[in-house]
Amino acid sequence: MAEKMALAKAINESLRKALESDPKVLLMGEDVGKLGGVFRVTDGLQKDFGEERVIDTPLAESGIVGTAIGLALRGYRPVVEIQFDGFVFPAYDQIVTQLAKMHARSLGTVKLPVVVRIPYGGGIGAVEHHSESPEALFAHVAGLKIVSPSNASDAYWMMQQAIQSDDPVIFFEPKRRYWDKAEVDPEAIPGPLHKARVVREGTDLTLAAYGPMVKVCQEVAAAAQEEGKSLEVLDLRSVSPLDFDTLQTSVEKTRRLVVVHEAPVFFGSGAEIAARITERCFYHLEAPVLRVGGYHAPYPPARLEEEYLPGLDRVLDAVDRALAY
Question: Where in this chain does the record put each Transketolase-like pyrimidine-binding domain (predicted)?
Answer without folding.
Answer: 5-180
